[in-house]
Amino acid sequence: MKRMKQNGGQLNFEHTQYQHYQNKQWYPKFNLTEDAFAIVAMSYITPEAMKMKIKFLQEFKRMKDYIQTQRREVPTDPFDQIELLALGTTKLNKRVEQLEQAVNERMTVDYSQQQAIRNALNRRVYKIWDDGTINNVVHDSRKKLFSAAWKDVKSAFAVNSYCNILQKDFNEAITYINAWRPRLI
């Protein structure tokens, strides 16, 4: 029973042991193949075991039906083969396009774009500070002006960090920063 002929003589039950992580004692352990598990599971006769057997057999039947419905006959005519390949290629191209679109909609700015955003904001804040076109009561230091600028950028693009601005919004972010004006109150 340890080895079954249908399994090519492969070991189905392997007796081994393991060490418990808390008390460091060694305990016996049996490694089972899927076939061995099925044999052991099918040998129990409790009501719970019967329920498990029924579920196992139902799932096996479902998988078998699924595999059989997925099989397609390969056409023998070369033109039909080409048509089948073209259909598969078209479906694959559509899936790739969908994946590319999903990635583009979720991909955030890379490091060089982050650096460009930082540089643009720094230039804008220093220009506004040096021009003196701010309300000095509200923004009495460059630190407060930087804080206001970053807050407005994050709010405009609905992100918690400028690093999370989407790549597709990068040019819009640069334009926004270059036109940014601090609030007057």
UniProtKB/TrEMBL annotation:
Domain of life: Bacteria
Pfam families reported for this sequence: ORF6C, Phage_pRha
InterPro entries: ORF6C_dom, Phage_regulatory_Rha
Domain spans labelled ORF6C: 82-183
NCBIfam families: phage_pRha
Protein name per the record: Regulatory protein Rha family
